[in-house]
Amino acid sequence: MKLESIRIKNFRAFRDAQMRDIPGFCVIVGANGTGKSTLFQLFGFLRNAMKDNVSVALTKLGGGRGFREVRSRNAEGSIEIELKFREGYKKPLITYELAIDENENGPYVKRELLKYRRGSTGKPWHFLDFSEGKGTAVTNEYDDVQNENDLKREDQTLKSPDILAIKGLAQFEKYPAVRALGDLVENWHISDFHISEARGENDSGYAEHLSPSGDNLPLVTQFLYKKHRATLDGILKNISHRVPGIRSAEPKETEEGKVLLRFTDSSFSEPFISRFVSDGTLKMFAYLVLLNDPKPHPLLCVEEPENQLYPKLLTELAEEFRSYAQKGKQVFVSTHSPDFLDAVELDEVFFLVKDMGCTSIYRANKNNEIVAMINDGGDKMGRLWREGYFNEVDPQ
Asked: Which pLDDT tens digit goes with each residue over 117-166?
């Protein structure tokens, strides 16, 4: 599934903002405090609400104040989120709407709606419609229905009004439309990578997927070595090609069954193990592990990947992100780096601009001056950013 648009209302800095025509590889640029992290927090909030409930997700995001901290300051009414996406080329447009409010009993789901549009005209069909824990859901497969009157709806009541209907009903095979959305949200990956944690000795246990912080990198490497050796070999070959100075990289299994990575630097004759490799090389390896997951995430969010990376590596990394998106997945990246932006296409960039405490979202390809300088003058995005052509979106 690919997100095509997002509308956000009363969610922190986003009083009323929208992103349209979102590409597979989407790069977010903005000055400090404009809401780049908040946009990624939105994805994390939805995933946490899917995993637990709205109350827990708000508490994690807003601390002790929960709803009041997350809702935009001085705002009235509900927090509203709208996602539009498709399951594939020429598939129907799917809209998911969520409104969250608070009463004396705490946060609750004021309205939750899932609807499919059959064509370019006519009203969309409602496949899920819930308010305050009660509502209806359709049990038909979408492709099996030709007339809205043939939709089979069931009334359901959730255990609590702060539970998402897509969480409760996605567990059942008889709600295919709801299950598809639930699977999408549940498998989002919001990276919070820390190089110090990736260097840790977390080498006992089992893990198939890289954690947001990267603390289980040794375990995932071990899993790839034993279950997907060709994938790991491809990653190591790629890193020796991508990272200057690394002549080769290979895995070595110890007598205890642990897998150590050995890197050979052009400056040294003897290989050294991964714990002694540079921060940039280790981070690049972690990103390649994430991007080559045998069961890839439908959506990745990566905040400021340029940290710890040598500027020349950023072009290589941008290519890897774009390649992942071209395989049918989606990548959101925020950046403060003009070097990273030099490797990005005009259609892939969105600007965040804050005015009077509220953030708006603009597409870079709607700025005629920037379009002309890139298309006619051959300028690169990063250079234009350094020279101040992005107005209030200055690199910091």
From this structure: 876 667 888 889 999 999 999 887 777 777 888 888 999 999 999 999 99
Per-residue pLDDT tens for 193-244? Answer: 998 888 876 667 889 999 999 999 888 988 999 999 999 999 999 988 888 8
Identify any residues that bridge with 26 across adjacent strands, giving them in sequence order. 332
Is 55 within 8 Å of 68 (Cβ atoms)? Answer: no
CATH number of the domain within which 226 lies? 3.40.50.300
d(CA 383, CA 360): 23
Q: Which residues pair with 251 in a beta bridge?
A: 261
Q: pTM of this prediction?
A: 0.91
DSSP secondary structure code for residue 276 in this structure: G
- The answer to whether 112 and 135 have CB atoms below 8 angstroms apart is yes
Q: Which domain holds residue 232?
A: 190-344
Q: d(Cα 374, Cα 336) in Å, to the nearest integer?
A: 20
Alpha-carbon gap, residue 259 to 253, rounded angstroms = 4
Cα(173)–Cα(180) distance, integer angstroms: 10
